[in-house]
Design brief:
Strand 1 and strand 2 form a beta hairpin. The protein has about 210 residues and is of the alpha+beta class. The protein is elongated, with a radius of gyration of 22 Å. The longest helix has 25 residues.
C-alpha cells in the first residue's frame, strides 16, 4: 500500500471513529467517555493535517457546529434543513483539512460510516433521558392521564385548517385559530395552503392538501 493510500485510509478510520464516538455521546449516556474519545480522534485528524493551530481550532469548531445542527434538527425541528447544513459543515471541515482529494473523499465517507455505526450504541447502552423528555409529548396516552389532550387531538380528524409554515414534511398548522405541529403525507405543502386532518396518532397530526380544483 503506497503512502497516499495509507494516508487516505488513516483519514477514513480516524474521522469515522471520531464521528461515531461524538454522535454516540449525544445518543447514549456514557458520562463523557465517548465525547473524550471523539474529541481525541478528531483533534488527531486535524492536528496531523493542519500545521497552523488557529486553523485546527477553526476547523474543529466548524465540525462541531455541524454536529450540533444535526442534533437540533433531529430532536427539535425535524424539517431536514439544519441536518443538511450540519452535514455540509462537517464535510467542509474535513475536506479543507485533508491534504489531498483522495484523503478528503475517504474522510467524508468516514463521517457517513461513523454516523451510521453510532446508532448501534442505542442497542448497547442506556439512551439519554433528555431525548425521552423531548419526545414525551409524542407518546402521551390515555393510560398516562392525558385523556383531555388525546381527545382534543382525536377530534381534529376531518377538520380543515391552514398551514402557517411550509410542511417539509413537518411544520405548523392552524385549526380553529389554534396552532398545532403537523406532518404531511409525504408531499411538500407550502405556507398558507388549505389542509384537512386525515389521521391523528396521540399528538401526531397528519394532514393532506385540499385540492380546490376539484
Amino acid at each position: 500500500m503506497n503512502e497516499l493510500m495509507q494516508l487516505s485510509v488513516m483519514s477514513f478510520v480516524i474521522v469515522g471513529l471520531g464521528t461515531m464516538f461524538l454522535i454516540g455521546e449525544v445518543l447514549v449516556n456514557m458520562r463523557g467517555v465517548f465525547a473524550l474519545l471523539g474529541i481525541f480522534f478528531m483533534t488527531l485528524f486535524f492536528y496531523t493535517h493542519i500545521p497552523n493551530m488557529s486553523m485546527i481550532i477553526i476547523m474543529f469548531i466548524i465540525y462541531l457546529v455541524g454536529l450540533i445542527l444535526i442534533v437540533i434538527d433531529g430532536k427539535v425541528l425535524n424539517d431536514g434543513t439544519l441536518t443538511t447544513l450540519g452535514i455540509v459543515s462537517m464535510i467542509i471541515s474535513v475536506s479543507i483539512a485533508a491534504p489531498n482529494l483522495a484523503s478528503g473523499i475517504y474522510s467524508v465517507i468516514g463521517i457517513v460510516i461513523g454516523a451510521v455505526l453510532s446508532l448501534t450504541f442505542l442497542k448497547l447502552f442506556k439512551k439519554r433521558e433528555m431525548w425521552g423528555k423531548l419526545a414525551l409529548k409524542d407518546r402521551l396516552t390515555t393510560e398516562e392521564g392525558y385523556t383531555t389532550l388525546t381527545e382534543e387531538y382525536t377530534q381534529l380528524v376531518g377538520q380543515t385548517g391552514t398551514t402557517l409554515t411550509d410542511l417539509r414534511p413537518s411544520g405548523t398548522i392552524s385549526i380553529n385559530e389554534k396552532e398545532y405541529s403537523a406532518i404531511s403525507t409525504g408531499n411538500w405543502i407550502h405556507k398558507n395552503e388549505k389542509i384537512h386532518v386525515i389521521d391523528v396518532d396521540g399528538t401526531k397530526i397528519q394532514v393532506e392538501l385540499i385540492d380546490e380544483t376539484k
